[in-house]
Amino acid sequence: MPAARLTVWDDAACWRVHEATLALLEETGVEVRHGRARALLAEAGARLDGTRARIPAALVDAALQSAPRHFTLRPRGGAGSVAGHARRGELGALELRDGETYFGTGSDC
Predict the structure, then answer these.
(1) Ramachandran angles phi, psi of 56, nearest 5°
(2) pTM of the model
(3) What pLDDT score was predicted for residue 9?
């Protein structure tokens, strides 16, 4: 079995994906079936057409700016967790049973 490869995008590639995503959210929109979620999006400035929400770039940027920089994902059973840093793209650090933190590498794939 061939080894998996991890390709890290440069800043320019990340920016192109971000810009394309903003255009998609604003022009095409997304299907939002939950009524309260649609109401919250509309209150924040999204345009609604039935269950489709078109989300302006300014709304996405404001949401990104207000998001926490650090976060921890915890499992229901409480055994182990995944910590991340949103701005550096770190996700995948595992808290091992002995309390040590392990950051995976491409060779782990």
Answers:
(1) -65, 150
(2) 0.64
(3) 82
Give SS3 for 4.
Answer: coil
Give the residue, 7 or 86, on which the prediction is more confident: 7
Coil, strand or helix: which one is 11?
Answer: helix
Burial of 26 (0-12, 13-18, 19+ CB in 10 A): middle
Dmax (CA) for the chain in angstroms is: 51
| Number of compact structural domains in the chain | 2
Residue 2 lies in a domain: no
Tell whether the model's pLDDT for residue 90 goes beyond 70: no
Residues making up the chain, counted from first to last: 109
Same domain, 45 and 74: no
How large a percentage of the chain has pLDDT more than 90?
Answer: 49
Spatial distance between the Cα atoms of 101 and 94, rounded to a whole number of angstroms: 6
Domain assignment present for residue 18? The answer is yes
- Domain range for 57 is 7-67
